[in-house]
Amino acid sequence: MKLDTIDKLLLGMLQANCKKTTKEYANALGLSTTAVYERIKRLEREGVISNYVALIDKHKASMDFTALCHVKLSQHVKEYVLQFEREVLQLAEVSECFHVSGDYDYILKIHLKDMAAYREFMVTKLTALKNIGSTHSSFVISEVKVSTAISL
User: Fold this and answer.
1) DSSP per-residue string spanning 39-71
2) What is the CATH class of 5-45?
């Protein structure tokens, strides 16, 4: 789908705050409420907008311990890859999972309460998955930039 300038501006506004009214977006864009409503519906229908979410403050939710865990599978065979991906989808602590190139096969972003919770997660959940060859963990000291927005 080809996005025009108005679509990109509207998407930027929605990414910044999707709780505004259609009228507020229309006023900012100099369009009618109906035109903006129709654009939003088209963007949803075409799958450009896939979901609306509430972003949680990790500190206030006491889930501000963030680990990046690199995972290497024991073998690079399709069966092991698909099995790992199915199983990691079931781990609620994992907020993001990336299949990557390089020394490791996956990078997991994991949010927990503290180091003890991370150890428990590693021992009882992650390393209990089949076909994991090795893991390497890094812990976030501070978040320099965090954004869910995609620059258009």
Assistant:
1) HHHHHHHTTSS----PPP-TTTTT--EEEEEEE
2) mainly alpha
